[in-house]
Amino acid sequence: MNKRIVTTALASAMLLGVVLLSGCQDVSTELKAPKYKTGIAETETRMSAFKGQFPQQYASYMKNNEDKIMTDYKGSVPYHKNDNVNPLPKGFKHAQPYLKNLWLGYPFMYEYNETRGHTYAIDDFVNIDRINRFAADGKGNLPATCWNCKTPKMMEWVAQYGDKFWSMDVNEFRAKDKISAHDETIGCANCHDPATMELRLYSEPLKDWLKRSGKDWQKMSRNEKRTLVCAQCHVEYYFTHKDNGPAAKPVFPWDNGFNPEDMYQYYKGHGAKGPDGRPGPFADWVHAASKVPMIKMQHPEYETFQDGPHGAAGVSCADCHMQYVREDGKKISSHWMTSPMKDPEMRACRQCHADKTGEYLRQRVLYTQQKTFDQLLKAQEMSVKAHEAVRLANAYEGHRAANYEALMAEARDMVRKGQLFWDYVSAENSVGFHNPAKALDTLMTSMECSQKAVDLATEATDFGIAPALAGDIKKLVPPILTLSRKLQQDPEFLKQNPWTKLLPALPKAEQVWEGQNRLTSQAGQDK
Amino acid sequence: MGTPRNGPWLKWLLGGVAAGVVLMGVLAYAMTTTDQRPFCASCHIMQEAAVTQKMGTHANLSCNDCHAPHNLLVKLPFKAQEGLRDVVGNIMGHDIPRPLSLRTRDVVNANCKACHTQTNINVASMDAKPYCVDCHKGVAHMRMKPISTRTVAYE
């Protein structure tokens, strides 16, 4: 009897021991990301092709369709970013009223909205007023380059047309038979190799930059890749001038560095070739009020972030914007790329700042955003005043300073530099948070340059324009609240604001494109 | 009643002692094993904690050298309760709570001090903050290391 007890005890003890020993192996510190053989072709561009094998990632990607939640300064409601008069969804309290003034003469003045998620990239693109939808020949008057950050189909098109693609008309690819707005918007294939799901690059300008700077994608760490796939698009870029290479090919202006001063210096070249055969200054457009050749900055998220507190510490974009979540017990990267501020618990931040509460972290972010936004508004007003000073000085017929031309040349350069610096922060999508010190430094420099422009233009006119510049800028140059291609066809409308008066009225025309649909017959005008 | 030498009473006594020794051995073995990283890491939710602990300066310690009281009488109910909570969390797919519960924090803090006694005696500013990890954050689990170096999908 006692033998049986002892035997049973021993047996169960051994069993327990075996279970404990065999079931548990120590962890490996070599982390291995999951590997796949999907059987999907490397050239696949449709998102739906991935749904079956990756239902959880697909479902989380579909959360990018959320377009109702606002954070304190940003969010996903596509309001007009210059409209601080109307409430959501048309306008928003933290809008910047002078955007249309600052981009006067450039398609950005027609429409510039808060961005929605990746899933809307094509929807919003084919409905934006920046692309001309009124030309009888159906052309958009912008290069096809604009498609670069809207769809993985770029790989197909670049392979098909080569460098000729970039200077084709943007509207040649907008119809439904060219692209599926929802299945071929920015999706899986923009960052993943469909066959293995390894991270890969599709974007020509980023691949070109890596080549130019001697970096090899294959040798990069997973951490670097988790940032660079985003840097395929969330960066400043420009379209190559035809004198310097394949016309309209996108290039990242990073050869001097990632900061606004580096870019300002870079854009002193890379424009049309002068009589001496060397490239002159590059310009995106000429401002309609001041006639200054301008640069438009576009969302330099990567450039801002890479040497900020988080970027310098080696944090990657995906760490915060694609946080790990557990779905049905499985740990996946959330493919809802959005602001961590939308989560009341700020869980994305607490992956590292584990000891802090959500509310504390939110207040820390707002601390930076509020200060940045306040200065952003001031820099914007200074920039408007600088344009107005140069406009007045251009037309000034009273006594001019002996060195008028030299002073004006410098004034114009300061207008250009001031606005480039302002736009570097304005177009960046974190309201300073990605790099607080750089954001405030850049805005300070912007204001310094704009003030210099005012001073120089005033001096050039022997202070003759000074009285006309005195007083509140909002009264001298009221913000342009509404403007579109359609409204620009109405000469009466243009008379309502001192700066829209400076725009030529467009010929009366009916809308030719509505989304992906051609409204008028294309007979007789096809290529 | 037979002689004590041959009586069933002695047999029972010796058998009982032998069984007791074996049982104690088994229990001690089970207790130690379930204190260790390989056992803890067999739950999904403990992967990141295990990986980062192995990379750090405390890699040679067991999980429960820090995460359970050292006094056996206090340890037993604590371990049973917290262990059960982790098992349930793992089954339900909940990640470990961050920050840790106050109770666990106190236990961990006492264990920091138990080993680092001399520091505790010699350094004047030891009471600057309530918990050691208020300043020495990330010492054990490297929460400030880039996320891709401490965790992956599907673990």
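The longest helix of chain A spans residues 358-394.
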